Amino acid sequence: MAPLxxxxxxxxxxxxxxxxxxxxxGIFSEQQSTSERLKQGITQVLSIIDGQHQPxxxxxxxxxxxxxxxxxxxxxxxxxxxxxxxxxxxxxxTELVGASSSGKTQVCLLATSNVAKKHMDxxxxxxxxxxxxxxxVIDFIRQNPDPAIDQAKHRILQKVMNRxxxxxVFDIFTMFDVLHQLEVNLRSQMQKGDCQxxxxxxxxxxxxxxxxxxxxxxxxxxxxxxxxxxxKKLAHEHxxxxxxxxxxxxxxxxxxxxxxxxxxxxxxxVRLRLxxxxxxxxxxxxxxxxxxxxxGKAARFTIYD
Length: 305
Prior knowledge:
With 305 residues, the protein is α/β, with parallel strands linked by helices.
C-alpha cells in the first residue's frame, strides 16, 4: 500500500493531522516496529467485513436469479394471489399493514397452512403476541379437503403440522437469537437435503420494535434496521418468503399510516394494506409498495370462518 501522504490528493481526509495521529498511535507508521503487524490486522478485518457483503450483480445476473430461484408461493387466498400475480415472492420481504382485526394474522395462518399442505415445505412462525392458533391452521387445512385427507385424515394432518415450527418471541433480542439459529439450521438443511423452510413469518414485527424506539437515542432505530436487513438477508440467501405484519398509527388528517416510521419504510420489498368491512366476511387488500407494479392496485377477498 502506498504511504499515506501519497494518498492525500485522492483522499483529502488523509491529511497531515490524520497522519500524525496514526504515527502517534503506531498505525500505518514506518516509525513504529509494530506498524506492519497492525497494518496486516486492519487489512484482515477489512477483508472480513468486505466478505460479509453481497457481490455486485449486473442486470442479467439479477434477471437470471429471479427467473431460476425467485418463484412465488400461494397464500391460499385467491384475491391476494391474483393481486400479486401468483402469490408471495421468494427472496423478498412482504409486509402486511393494517389496524387491529384487519385480517393480518388470519392471512399469516392461511399462508402457513397452504405452504405446509400444498407446497409441502417448512414454515417458521415467530409469534409475538400469542396469536398463533394451531386449531385455526387445522381448520384451513381441512378447508376444501382432497380425497387423500378424507382417507387418512389424522396422518396427513400430523405430517402437515410437523412442518410448522412456532416460536413465542416477546422482545427483539430473542428474535435475533432465533433468527441466527435459524440461519445455522438453514445452512445445515441445504447440506443434508432435508425438508426446506420456505416461509418465515414474524407476527408482528411492530410489537418487537415499537418498545425500543422510545427516547432520543439512535440505538432503537439501529436495532430496527439490523432486524430488517437480517430478515432480507435470510430471504435472499435461502430463497425464503419472509412475511411480517405491522400495525397502523394515526397520521395527518386522521388518516392511518404504517407504524415504525420512515426508517422502516424502505426495508420491505412489498407492502400491502389490509382492512376489514365490519359486520361482513369481506376483507380488502391494496398495494402500498411493490417492485413490479404500481401502488394503489386493490382487491377484495374472504377468509373461511
